[in-house]
Amino acid sequence: MSDILIIDDDPGFVKFLKNHVHQSFPGLSIATCLDPVCGLSQINPDLKLLLLDLEMPTIDGEKVLTYAVAKGVSKSRIIILSGRDADYLHRRFPMGSCLAVLNKHEVRQKAVLNMVLGALQEKYGNREQVF
Predict the structure, then answer these.
(1) Response regulatory domain: from which residue to which, for each copy (predicted)?
(2) CB atoms within 10 A of CB 100
(3) C-alpha neighbours within 13 Å on the C-beta side of residue 28
(4) 79-113 per-position pLDDT tens digit
(5) How many CB atoms lie within 10 A of CB 49?
(6) Is residue 78 helix, strand or coil?
(7) In order of start, what are the domains of the chain with their CATH numbers?
(8) What's the CA gap between 105 and 102, in Å, rounded?
């Protein structure tokens, strides 16, 4: 079972983010889904972090967020990612809707994601893995 699940239909961004997590936060395990429908089956309440792209075909990130919360994932463990500007994202997802809404192309927003990933690694990354 993975600590982090990324559901995003952009293969280049997913590859970048997955490599970044593996290199910078090696204590965290990560799973990815390019198809939001397939990603639904991997959502479970034990996820430490769920990263969702807002704009995806078939099911958008807001619907996946609603599904994840219904499956028992805490809103405080869900981050919405988008190419849209931060003001739009904050209007669409007011405080308390999820942990954060981040523009995936802004450097300052990536710093926030790194802060979250660092906190997760500190909390969960040094545990022994049981197979």
Answers:
(1) 3-119
(2) 20
(3) 28
(4) 999 999 878 988 999 999 999 999 988 888 888 99
(5) 24
(6) strand
(7) 4-124 (3.40.50.2300)
(8) 9
